[in-house]
Amino acid sequence: MKLTLTEQDAAHWVYRGEGAANIVVSYTGSSPSYIGKVMRIRKSPRKASALPGVKNTIALSPHERLIWKEVHELISSSDKEIAGQLYVDHVMKPLLGSKYVDAGTHILVTKEFLMTIEKNVDSQRPASRVDVSQVDKQCDFALLMSDHSIFPQGSQGSSNSISVEIKPKCGFLPLSTFISEGTAIKKKITRFEMHQALKLQRGEISQRSVYNPLDLFSESKERVHKAIKNLFTTPQNNFRVFLNGSLTLGGLGGGAESTDACMAKVLEDELHSVIQAGDGQCTENLFTLVTEAVHKSGVLNQLLEIQKLDRFDVEGAIHAYYNITFQQCKVCKELSKEQAKLYSSLHSASLDESLRIVKDYLIAATAKDCSLMVCFRPRNENDSGSSYNTVYLESTKQAFDYKVHFIDLDLKRLNKVEDYYELDKNIVSCYKQMNKIDDGRNDDAKLQGPEVANLQGSEVTNLQGPKVANLQGPEVAY
Questions:
Q1: Is the distance from CB of 175 to CB of 310 less than 8 angstroms?
Q2: What is the pLDDT, as a whole number, of residue 186?
Q3: What is the SS3 assignment for 134?
């Protein structure tokens, strides 16, 4: 971290968006060190429970150090932000492929720089985000990464680029034997669809998304195309489109409810600079481009493989969590002796087995919550060659360079496992109530639509492949 950004540098960084933990800004200046870069700046809650001015330097808890004991760089980290970057570099990059993962580098920033950034971006942030979080001005560094919504400056090809950011979510239906009878509906309805019901009940969205993750992960071009189109229809926080790095469709820090005719026309008009199609055809051609790139790259197959490290579901992982934190199991405490028998094998597992279960669950949680950035640019006729893969758009007779990257590969914290378990219960309960489904008796009668009809092939196959097999070890060949 040799370079340091100061107050006068802040004017060249503009708001790009944000998630729960970070604000993202992109560079608009002329410094070669930052052209084509974005920066993730850590946020802190406005109502912090800790004393003001006290910096949290604890990166990992003692139990987390046990979980990640084989990743020496990670457990030696002294700051949670640095630990997050090391997690991407040493855990997620080997799993998803170094070609598709950019861990970034840390850069020093002054407090004055952060104060000015906050002043500049607050008016563009969603009010709901501003109310609960602010720039963490106690943190003296930020994460610098390549802007994967554009191509590097000076590389061959058109100067215009279009990119699509997708949050795929969980792409399979769980088969774990530790899923209880009362929550067995999880084996038939996607987590995404059920979560939509809870978000609707809580007022977080005004309408349910029509997107089905099983379509995106299906390997069927028709279904992938349908998934992309449905994401476009109801983007929420799962779909965004950028033209030359500038947001054209989708929400910045929050979600875009649905795409109306005006928004669709703006996107269609913008796409004319990249896709040589007639009026009303550019957007449809974009869906085709994304479909072809996703299918050709095979990145979603790899992502699904990592998601399926969650073999036990949270209903099984929670018991391993209590094993490694040496607590009495709060879940079993609320069950009858007969019900608790289902989980006795988990509580009799060795510490190493419990650690592996929780570790795999957390890695899978990252894979279920990350985003995929797919970027395109038309190839010039006089391009003699390109280091990028290409897709061909038959309808316009255009060839496009494309690149794909995974982003938002955040380290999931161990102390959130209980929250994940409670959220899972709430999601299932809300969905069943809204659809008037009785516990374990009438599920099959109520289930209809693509979630059941499309349950086939890759959605329900067991996790395979040498990369994952080597992760497991002989003691837990689930």
A1: no
A2: 97
A3: strand
Query: What is the total residue count of the chain?
Result: 478
Task: Provide φ and ψ at 402, rounded to 5°.
Answer: -145, 155
Tell me the average pLDDT of the chain. 86
Cα–Cα distance for residue pair 206/300, rounded to 1 Å? 29
In degrees, rounded to 5, the angle at the alpha carbon of residue 405 between the alpha carbons of residues 103 and 384 is 115
Taking only the tens place, the pLDDT of each residue in 366-396 is 999 999 999 999 987 666 667 889 999 999 9
Reduced to 3 states (helix: H, G, I; strand: E, B; else coil), residue 108 is: strand
Strand 13-18 relative to strand 246-249, pairing: unpaired
Which tokens sit at 194? 């059920």
Report the distance separating Cα 96 and Cα 304, nearest Å: 10
d(CA 424, CA 375): 34
DSSP E strands in 19-116: the ranges are: 22-27, 37-45, 105-109
Q: In angstroms, rounded to a whole number, what is the distance separating the alpha carbons of residues 444 and 251?
A: 37
Between 299-307 and 282-297, two packed helices, what is the crossing angle to 10 degrees? 60
Q: What is the pLDDT of residues 94-146, one digit of tens each?
A: 999 999 999 999 999 999 999 999 999 999 898 888 888 999 998 899 999 99
Beta-sheet strand order (sheet of 239-243): 246-249, 239-243, 162-166, 371-378, 398-407, 389-393
Contact at 8 Å (CB) between 344 and 372? no
User: Looking at residue 56, what is its pLDDT?
Assistant: 45
Tell me what pLDDT residue 21 has.
84
In this structure, what token pair is assigned to residue 305? Answer: 């493989």
Sorting pLDDT into bands at 50, 70 and 90, what band is 251?
Answer: confident
Q: Are 1 and 141 in contact (CB under 8 A)?
A: yes
Q: pTM of the prediction?
A: 0.85
DSSP code for 10: G
